[in-house]
# Entry
Amino acid sequence: FLQDRFQREITLPQVNVSPKSQLTLDPKLDSKLRRKCADQFDLWHSARR
# Structure
């Protein structure tokens, strides 16, 4: 909208971006989480379809 209005390209820098890091869980913890929160995982997967 603003680019059309001002007839110039607007480039905004990315701010407040989390640093890149490894986001994996220990397999035992992942298994426990999926077991304890199975209903939440089911809801998440059904909503993504």
Summary: The chain has a mean pLDDT of 92. The two ends are 31 Å apart (CA to CA). The helical segments are 2-6, 27-36, 38-47.
